[in-house]
Design brief:
With 563 residues, the protein is an alpha/beta fold. α2 packs antiparallel against α4 (88-101) and α19 crosses α20 (465-481). The radius of gyration is 25 Å and the shape is globular. The chain binds phosphoenolpyruvate (PEP) and magnesium ion.
């Protein structure tokens, strides 16, 4: 019934691209079985215990076969997890709890896994890291004995469209673009970290698509338009054919961003690890404007060692020899969970200790990270700049810069993403050697609109004149102190907004590598004077929509560029 009535679900297009493919559904997380969950009267305990043995073999076989289709690190991980699923200690203990105590198999597995986790945690270090794998195996075993779908990001046999109620940034970070053609989720907003990761991976994505899970079943064929924000089920054959024909030829970037009259605007990339840095270098990014260091550590139970961090940072620096790489210290909190920091759960994570504010409560974590950055920088030739997220006051900027100095890191700056820092930019630049404007959070905090809430996306928009006014204030502070100021939020990847940002005084734009060519193309058609005029147009607009429309219609080359 629903099929004929509403074949199209609308959400927010957060990562462009149109594709057709079969749906794979993200299973619901496995819930803890009730403590009182016991074998029903009359059911044989030995038969119940045998279900655990069978589930263990089933999960081991599933993971072994998944490993056979994987390569590199993920293959090693799957093989190790497969072995854990058959671990005699875990299985024997779970069986004992059924045979001796009469627990239901799911509860017995849960408790046995809990015991293994406690033992591993007591050992500490890298051994304790394995508790995460134990919990993964536990959930798979519980799913197997209770007949639920295996938890976590599924492993489709053919390239598919992932449809989910929600997707954590840690799950999004593991998506393989070769396996997932697109992502559609019911929750999330345009600048949630899941959206940012999808864009970085080049996977078309629609978030905030309420009703998506109910509109499809496993295997439904859907057309996802990540630009318009739609998912259409059972698209007609003509539409599929026209889609193949309409693929726009890819524009390329020549590695030097500039306005029509030759003012250099550095076009640099946002990266999360060595692999994404290599992609950015291949796309000819002039450097890295934002290395989000926390993404590589999302969901980890233990802090990464200094040695591990050095290796991770060197991988990124090595991709840009002799070039600028701006590395941001850990930005935990908000929608990014770093359990090893032990930050308290608060009712309002976006306003809680987050980024540098959290870091000041964790001096060892800060010093270890700065130490690792300094060591990695000494081994590579990249020009390393360091910045701290969520700096709200000149005082915090001064503290961060001083801390960096202690580690021999002399290019220290801040992310301007809290309105107070933009308004006090002159004083911030008295300490900071540079700044990068985080427009995602700046919009969230300026407009008091949660960046994860799709229903507030109109407010949480960098085209909002109030947000542009804060960017102008930040740039005025930078100009006064003669310091570089970039933009590293998603605003930098919007082609029509690029000249506006330059007109406001921004000297570099950092974005997903896929956006470099389009942004460069627009900038190359506008002079510095045009940029200033466009900035005034946008600042004077009554609202975000008018700002966008005014600017778009004032850039004559935009329609020709097909943007
Ligand atoms: C931002 O807030 O604009 C930013 C770049 O940081 P993140 O999106 O990682 O919070
Ligand atoms: Mg931010």
């Amino acid at each position: 019934m629903r099929e004929r009535e509403s074949p199209t679900i609308t959400g927010i297009g957060v990562s462009p691209g149109r594709i057709v493919g079969p749906v794979v559904l993200m299973p619901a997380p496995i819930a803890e079985p009730a403590i009182s969950d016991r074998i029903a009267v009359g059911v044989d305990r030995a038969t119940s215990a045998q279900r655990i043995t069978t589930a263990s073999a089933q999960v081991r076989d599933e993971l072994t076969s998944a490993a056979a289709h994987a390569s590199g690190k993920s293959r090693e991980l799957l093989e190790a997890t497969a072995m854990m699923a058959a671990d005699p200690l875990l299985v024997t203990d779970a069986r004992r709890r059924v045979l001796e105590n009469g627990l239901a198999p799911a509860r017995a597995i849960w408790d046995a896994a809990g015991q293994v986790c406690d033992d591993l945690t007591a050992v500490g270090g890298v051994v304790a890291e394995r508790t995460r794998d134990v919990r993964d195996v536990r959930d798979r075993l519980v799913a197997a004995v209770t007949g639920q779908a295996s938890p976590g990001v599924p492993r489709p046999l053919e390239p598919s469209v992932l449809v989910a109620t929600d997707l954590a940034p840690a799950d999004a970070a593991t998506l393989d673009p070769a396996k997932f053609l697109a992502v559609v989720t019911e929750s999330g907003g345009p600048i949630s970290h899941t959206a940012i990761i999808a864009r970085a991976l080049g996977i078309p994505a629609v978030l905030g698509a309420v009703g998506a899970m109910g509109a499809v079943v496993e295997g439904s064929i859907v057309l996802v338009d990540g630009g318009r924000g739609t998912m259409r089920r059972d698209p007609p054959a003509e539409l599929i054919a026209s889609l193949a024909a309409a693929t726009r030829p890819a524009r390329t970037f020549d590695g030097y961003g500039h306005t029509a009259d030759g003012v250099h605007i550095a076009l640099v990339a946002n990266v999360v690890d060595a692999a994404s840095a290599v992609v950015a270098a291949e796309a000819k990014a002039e450097g890295v404007g934002l290395f989000r260091t926390e993404v590589g550590f999302l969901g980890r139970e233990e802090a990464p060692s200094v040695a591990e961090q050095v290796e991770a940072y060197r991988g990124v620096f090595a991709a840009f020899p002799g070039r600028m790489v701006v590395i941001r210290t850990l930005d935990a909190g908000g929608d990014k969970s770093l359990p090893f920091l032990g930050l308290p759960v608060t009712s309002n994570p976006a306003l809680a200790p987050r980024g540098w504010r959290a870091a000041t409560q964790l001096p060892t974590v800060v010093d270890d990270q700065l130490d690792a950055i300094a060591r990695a920088a000494r081994h590579e030739s990249a020009d390393v700049w360091v910045m701290a997220p969520m700096v709200a006051t000149p005082q915090a900027a001064a503290e961060f810069v001083a801390r960096c100095e202690l580690h021999g890191l002399h290019r220290a700056g801040v992310v301007i993403e809290v309105p107070s820092a933009a308004l006090r930019a002159r004083q911030v630049f008295a300490h900071a050697a540079f700044a990068s404007i985080g427009t995602n959070d700046l919009a969230q905090y300026a407009m008091a609109a949660d960046r994860l809430d799709a229903s507030l996306a109109d407010l949480c928009d960098p085209w909002q004149p109030a947000v542009l006014a804060l960017i102008a204030a930040a740039c005025a502070g930078a100009t006064h102190a003669d310091r570089p100021v970039g933009v590293c939020g998603e605003a930098a990847a919007i082609p029509a907004l690029a000249p506006v940002l330059v007109g406001l005084g921004v000297t570099s734009l950092s974005m997903t590598p896929r956006a470099l060519a389009d942004v460069a193309a627009v900038l190359a058609t506008t002079t510095a004077a045009d940029c200033a005029r466009l900035a005034d147009l946008a600042l004077d607009a009554p609202d975000a929509r008018a700002a966008r429309e005014r600017v778009r219609s004032a850039i004559p080359a935009l329609p020709d560029l097909g943007l």
